[in-house]
Amino acid sequence: MSHSDLRNDVLLRALLREPVPxxxxxxxxxxxxxxxxxxxxxxxxxSFLGLAKNPAYATEVTLQPLERFALDAAILFSDILTIPDxxxxxxxxxxxxxxRFAHPLRDEAAVARLAVPDLGELQYVFDAVSExxxxxxxxxxxxxxxxSPWTLACYMVEGAGSSDYRQVxxxxxxxxxxxxxxxxxxxxxxxxxxxxxxxxxxxxxxxFDSWGGVLADGDFQAxxxxxxxxxxxxxxxxxxxxxxxxxxxxxGGGVWLEAIADAGSDAIGVDWTVDLGAARERVGQRVALQGxxxxxxxxxxxxxxxxxxxxxxDSFGPVQPGYGHVFNLGHGISQFTPPEAVAALVETVxxxxxxxxx
Length: 358
Description:
Keywords: Cytoplasm, Decarboxylase, Lyase, Porphyrin biosynthesis
Subunit structure: Homodimer.
CATH class: Alpha Beta
Pathway: Porphyrin-containing compound metabolism; protoporphyrin-IX biosynthesis; coproporphyrinogen-III from 5-aminolevulinate: step 4/4
Site (Transition state stabilizer): 79
Strand order of the largest sheet: 1-4-5-8-9-10-11
Structural class: alpha/beta
CATH topology: TIM Barrel
Order of helices and strands: HHHHEHEEHHEHHHEHEEEHEHEHEH
Family: Belongs to the uroporphyrinogen decarboxylase family.
CATH architecture: Alpha-Beta Barrel
Radius of gyration: 19 Å
Distance between the termini: 29 Å
Strand content: 5-15%
């Protein structure tokens, strides 16, 4: 199925800064716990990993938000930790606790053993991509994704989420050589993983640098952005004769916007601490921008949500030739979000943005 077989390719065109009739919208974590139908499927799957590793279930939940809302993209239902899981670090998800690794990278020997995983270990992800593409049948594009080398390393060294990043920063400052080895292996792994998603049918790819913003200035450029740039340089830019756009999202990365814009992606995601109009001035026509409603704004009630969405669109301003905007949240949607707030958001973005295009 080529680009022209997509009945709605507004997202891809916006990412490539081509003219579009309205601002497309999709949401980070749009297939998730705020939807009762997702919770029902997850219960049938038995666990989060049972859901993510079963292509039929992954397809079912990927499509659920599209049945409810007129979203302009589907995003693969998976997790950024599939790569370290395939590296043998022993991933598990405890209810209410988030991810845990049984074998975090805590010493030189563990780092020495680390290797790029066999992509065959991740075949369930590529099977899900193919199955989702078939199920979508050209309705909207499918976004594939991976964690950034740095963000993956945070989980691999900490062994779980962290509030202070003590383990990973201790390793970074005491033994930068070991940190660079982990990051280099992660970058090669992410390149192979995303290219396999593209081969399986992903029509755009996103790199989630969720923890890039915790680094000091200078360290961000050396330990996060350098490896994101390496991934972008290794990605397939075309598949089946059409361009495959790339998006980079660094949470807390607004201060490094220009440097991120020069890393080689087609678009950059920004969180809600960034003024979109100012961001647009700073990056010019180098990249499209994606974002950036605070997910907590969805708790304000549907009418207020509509006002807040218009405010985000107006801050980006009229979309002139050579500029692109994709509406999204500044982080993943909260599991407590009322679905009617999402309905109001999608409707408002489509109707209000139409006047800003042309």
